[in-house]
Amino acid sequence: MEKKWDVIIVGAGPAGLQAAITAAQQGLKVVLVEKQRDISRITRSCCQMLIMDNDYQNEGISVKQGKIVFTRNNFEIDYDGPTVDINEKYYLSPRGHKIHFSHQGRQPIGLRYDKGRLLQQLLQQCERLGVEFINSAITRDAHNSPEGISVRFSRGGKEQKLRAKKLIVADGVNSKLAACLGFNQNRTHFTTALCIMTVMEGVKGFEPHTFKNANGLVYGSKRPILMGPTLLGDNTMDLLVSGDTELKPKEIFHYFTTQSPLAYMFEDAEVVETTGCTLKACSTIPVPYKDSALLIGDAAAFVEVQVQGGIMCGYHAGIAIVRELQGKKGFSEYTRWWNDTFEFNSSDFLRVAQGYSLSPTYNDDELDYLFSLTEDEVLEGTLSQYKTPRLMWESILRHQDRIAREKPEIHEKIKALDSMVLA
Ligand SMILES: Cc1cc2nc3c(=O)[nH]c(=O)nc-3n(C[C@H](O)[C@H](O)[C@H](O)COP(=O)(O)OP(=O)(O)OC[C@H]3O[C@@H](n4cnc5c(N)ncnc54)[C@H](O)[C@@H]3O)c2cc1C
Questions:
Q1: Please, what are the domains in the chain?
Q2: Ligand 1 centre from 346 Cα, in Å?
Q3: Which helix (H) or strand (E) segment is 354 a member of?
Q4: pTM above the 0.90 mark?
Q5: Residue 98 belongs to what H/E stretch?
Q6: CA 370 to ligand 1 centroid distance, Å
Q7: Which of 6, 86, 219, 230 could be joined to 110 by an S-S link, Cβ 3.0–4.6 Å?
């Protein structure tokens, strides 16, 4: 006889796993469908950093005694894997001028951690709670109605179907189910980036415990190149480059490590591991539910909720499902939380993001000039992709009169873009 599920969850990333835990803790019958065989093997690029800002996504997480604690959302998860503190962040200009972010007491702005271990521990918790986990299963489509859900997936060459009262879609940034359930109809597709992330060993002169972001065409890319610590020791580095179909990430990687001003760091370096991903940036889904289906995590987001945001989505989605099944308005409560928590859901997010952009808006000489203005300052420590440009531009704009006097052409550009930021 066909088993009756309360909820089907598609995608065992941070969002789907935590949703399964929360729903199962409340006594629901949960089935979790995932296309990977082994979720602890990270095959999709991820920098694996926890953002330790105390006001990020209305939360300030702490990591202690084998737990990651979500202090304001009032829940915790297991994590007994290693961590490496990230205490300093630098934005580098083409000639190496630095914008420096750090806390006065040098407390960590981020932690490099082992995402594979984190996912594995979430899955173990699911299993302890009796969640049925179906791996190596690719979800094809779903039928959604107010009365319930059916989901079709293929596994080992066989088509199978599941039915449940509710569905949580947590299949990530390029969500197939979002498209097939009609959630993408009013979304704008902004850009598609192709990324590769490489773990390098034998790197020279990379300061441990730092995160660096190289800006300018001199580095071979129109987008920033990111460098961060790994868990493998001080002479290793995670290197993330992103390109597109015209300028491929492989070409950027080659140029950056052999011809850019930082090529010397890689003279004796070796590639330990490479992962890749395609990132489709689409406008967010402000109302991420319809009938019996709720979309969570990256599946509904403008690019990324981040791992900690995904876990929070899962936690609130689990509660939402329970409340829906009790006849309450769980989905609309989730929607309120979703809109209040993630900065990309605010109406002026895109305008502001555009106003903050560095390369290629400013050419390499202009970037050098702008970065040199703030070099004597240490800005507040942050790993937030939203707070960082705000702090940086606040600092640069304190020199507006000087810029107008010395570089009127840069000032004109700033004025045009600044009106977006300050409007
Ligand atoms: C280059 C890069 C660097 C990043 N760095 C960081 C970082 O340092 N820190 C941080 O917190 N976040 C980082 N992120 C973001 C982070 O990885 C995501 O925001 C987070 O993993 C989203 O969680 P999720 O559960 O919504 O989706 P995902 O983690 O994408 O999980 C989706 C799951 O669904 C499965 N799936 C997909 N399609 C199907 C299907 N058809 N059938 C069944 N299963 C399916 C996938 O296999 C996957 O397991 C980074 C992302 C990228 C691309």
A1: 5-48+114-186+283-344 (3.50.50.60), 190-282 (3.30.9.10), 349-422 (no CATH)
A2: 22
A3: helix 349-356
A4: yes
A5: strand 98-101
A6: 34
A7: 86
